[in-house]
Recover the amino acids of this structure.
DNA sequence: CGTTAACTTGAATTTTGTCAATGCCTGTGG
DNA sequence: CCACAGGCATTGACAAAATTCAAGTTAACG
């Protein structure tokens, strides 16, 4: 018996295909299934009452969708490219996880990664300007798409500019202008509309602010001394 | 033997006190312990290289801190008010969780709640304006501090305006101005500097956009048809 | 009761969003 | 294989929202 992994768990399930724009599930649907993505890219998003859309993540092959949830899905998952997935019922998935001491920590680790990504995104949305957001985004893709980013500077952007905007909390125009600026500064180069080449990874990282996001213990200590008066 | 709960798990650990401004741990520290908060309020935050601060959450009694993590803490946790906590070593905590089929789903549920909160926050930061952000924040506190919000309209705000600003992705001035507007419109009333009274919960919820954040399936279907040209 | 930090308010500036027009891929059909 | 249509992306001019800078005001604590 091979070492049980999350991938292996799904490997006997039939493969399903989704076309561009097709939804795996909708926000508010009963959370009945968990999916593993084999091929393709998905966007997961929520929509406010007046139509504003927020993309909370992009899903790539190897990722799971629909795990970290409640009774109902908290977001819609939609294919950006032709996509292949395998699925489990939620109940069966939970049983399998619960019964396997090997699988549990794997799932836990994934949730922690997801949480870490969510926090990075909160930092981006709360305090980074347009240029920093776009740079951070491109850098994240670069890191996700290949381990040694220096080796494969070409990055595919399967999502539209509108997707990027709704992920970065910007408008499509601001994303476009910011990309143009990065092109002009030779930090990236266009490679068709849906790919770029990173020409200056170091500079991109500097702009993104991913360089030295480090804490500086001596400083914080007395800066933010909040006082609780009604003790 | 009583039904095992996460609270009970900590109940034999000694109680530790932290003063205002004291840190339980720093971003980047080895993640050695998990904490349960008994009393007080904490802020958890990260700092960018140039000093910009992002508060990713406020922690109240009953919450756990330091769980959803990697080798190192991803954020600093600092007491906003005099705080009492109990702690476990991470290792011992993991063992206990792993050995208890009752505790595991409880922890899992908490992580899912945390993930859901993180997504709400991403929506807030990506697409809501200042007024919506502040209203959402006050509403969240109201819901957290008492079940039936109508019954206890007074809400304590132990954090400073700067804390609120760094949580909401705004400046301290914008938070102040927005609060003033809500005061003038009689939606909330000040109760000292560190508490408010909600005078019109319904209106506050409308402003926050928490009313009808519902999906409208018929609309999305063909709106965001991204195309993948390089198939 | 005075000192100091926190908060509020105002005016000017900057960034990003909005609206509108143009340009360019991409996929389709001749 | 090429021409064309339609969506997507880019660009520009203007408007709006939030930030920045600069005083003032208030409230907590010694």
């Amino acid at each position: 018996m091979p070492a049980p992994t999350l991938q292996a768990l799904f490997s006997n399930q039939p493969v399903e295909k989704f076309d561009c724009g097709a939804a795996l599930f909708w926000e508010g649907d009963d959370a009945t299934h968990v999916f593993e993505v084999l091929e393709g890219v998905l966007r997961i998003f929520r929509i406010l009452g007046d139509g504003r859309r927020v993309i909370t993540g992009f899903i790539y092959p190897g990722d799971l969708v629909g795990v970290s949830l409640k009774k109902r899905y908290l977001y819609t998952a939609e294919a950006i490219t032709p996509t292949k997935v395998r699925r489990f019922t939620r109940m069966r998935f939970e049983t399998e996880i619960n019964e396997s001491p090997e699988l549990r920590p794997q799932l836990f680790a994934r949730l922690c990664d997801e949480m870490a990504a969510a926090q990075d995104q909160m930092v981006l949305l709360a305090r980074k300007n347009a240029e920093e957001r776009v740079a951070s985004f491109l850098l994240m893709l670069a890191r996700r798409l290949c381990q040694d980013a220096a080796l494969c500077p070409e990055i595919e952007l399967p999502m539209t500019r509108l997707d990027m905007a709704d992920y970065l909390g910007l408008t499509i125009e601001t994303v476009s202008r910011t990309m143009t600026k990065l092109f002009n500064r030779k930090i990236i180069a266009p490679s068709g509309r849906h790919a770029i080449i990173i020409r200056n990874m170091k500079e991109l990282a500097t702009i993104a602010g991913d360089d030295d996001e480090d804490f500086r213990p001596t400083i914080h200590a007395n800066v933010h001394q909040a006082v609780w008066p009604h003790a």
About this structure: The mean pLDDT of chain B is 89. The longest strand of chain B covers residues 33-39. Residues 103-127 of chain B form the longest helix (25 residues). The CA atoms of residues 50 and 150 of chain B lie 42 Å apart.
